[in-house]
Amino acid sequence: MRRGRGQSDLFANPVLIGAVTVLVAVVGVVLAYNANNGLPFVPTYKVTATVPDAAQLTAGNEVRIGGKRIGVVEGIEAQVSAAGTPTADLRLKLDKVVQPLPADTEVTVRPRSTLGLKYLELRPGRSRQGIDPGGRIPVDRAQPIVELDEVINAFDAPTREGLRGVVRELGNGLAGRGEDLNRAIAAAPPLVTRLERVARNLAAPRTDLRGLVRGLAATTAAVAPVADQLGGLVDGAAVTLGAIAAADGALDEIFDLAPQTIAVATRAARTLRPVLTDAAALVSDLRPGVALLPVAATRLAAAVETGTPVLGRAIVLGDRLGETLEALDALFRNPATGGAVRKLTAVVASLGPTLRFVNPFQVQCNYLGLWTRNASSVISEGDQNGNWFRFIAIVKADEALQQSAPVADLHANPYPHAGIEGECEAGREPYLPGQHIGNVPGNQGAATELTAPPAGVGRP
Question: What residues pair up with 48 in beta bridges, in sequence order?
Fold first, then answer.
């Protein structure tokens, strides 16, 4: 009985009841004040989103996914990149139910009302990789922001006047056409059915309608600087079309004669087809020759330049050649010439092997020119006492005397290759250690030193 009376006295104390009431009210006010920032002691999922423009967001604004509130904007910090581009970092405090957000999540600032309130909308992507707590949504995942004032400013005075004209003309066009509208409405269901398939194709990822729109936007942006020139083009096209309209009768005649002209052209094309086929084959066969024309033309030009001085001297040669031909004719008429020619033929035939060796000996290896030049150079230098040879003979005693076997380091090549098998070996043999008798191994090259006279010597 005493405990019950004590408890009654406790709850009957107005001071205590007032203090408890004030404490509850204070706690309620604190919770209500911090409700926008989340309840205390509740775990959250924090990430940072970078946007190019915070668009008047403030700390405490809602973060939504699909229209549902899943967190708040805890804070906003302005940033400037190394390139000088301003951005804003939004610190987001989200509910644990959305953790983790996909790495390709997109963010955009949306208007909440016409009074300027905003909220941040998240659009989770399809990436299997998530954003860790404390991670970041990069700025390239932020979508463009369209402000309400920008939309309203798009309807300026010229635009409103244009819309007014469109509405007026549409009203005039629809007036008195009720039956046509009824028939159009009756035909709408099949159109809508087909339009659904068209819309599905347009919405398919393979159609890339977004890419088309972006391409059209880029084209419009590229055309905008030359709008004046395009206006001039349209004016010129109007003049051209006016001229075509003035020649309406002539165009009718052209169109009337067009079928007959096309028929004649078709028959002519059938006749020309074999010729064109042969021409195509000819062009294909000429292609290798045409590829060689530049080189051939260059060589022909060089030959003409070289042959021009020769032809200048050919006039004098022609006079002498006439006398020579007369003497040759008298020689042919001589009865004794036949036997001499037959013997000369045998002599030339016997010279064949020698000439086959001598031809590359000189033409390829130039040994005769080298020998003639070097032989004259051997005694071309000296002093007041006389000339001397331009070489020193090195002879070893055991090589100069008779021996039972060749010397161990003897080098002898009595029959060097002189134009044989494309090699000019004589005078180009390397000095190899040891004994080497005969041709040295390897190919020593297919040419020797040229002995052409200096520039201007021996030329007219």
Answer: 91, 136
As given in the structure block, the two tokens for residue 395 are 């002879």
C-alpha–C-alpha distance, residues 262 and 276, integer Å: 19
Q: Which residues pair with 72 in a beta bridge?
A: 62, 93
Cβ–Cβ under 8 Å, residues 440 and 425:
yes
* Per-residue model confidence as pLDDT tens digits over 14-60: 666 666 676 777 666 665 555 555 555 568 888 888 888 887 788 88
Q: What is the pTM of this model?
A: 0.33
CA dist 432 and 405 (Å) reads: 19
> How distant, in Å, are the alpha carbons of 162, 419, 449 from that of 357?
100, 7, 19
Q: How many other C-beta atoms lie within 10 A of the C-beta of residue 142? A: 20
Measured distance CA(36)–CA(334) in Å, rounded: 135
Got the DSSP string for 61-103?
-EEEETTEEEEEEEEEEEEE-TTS-EEEEEEEEE-GGGPSPBT
All residues at 6 or more sequence positions from 127 whose CB lies less than 8 Å from its CB, including other chains: 102, 103, 104
Q: How many CB atoms lie within 10 A of CB 399?
A: 14
Token pair belonging to 170? 């549409």
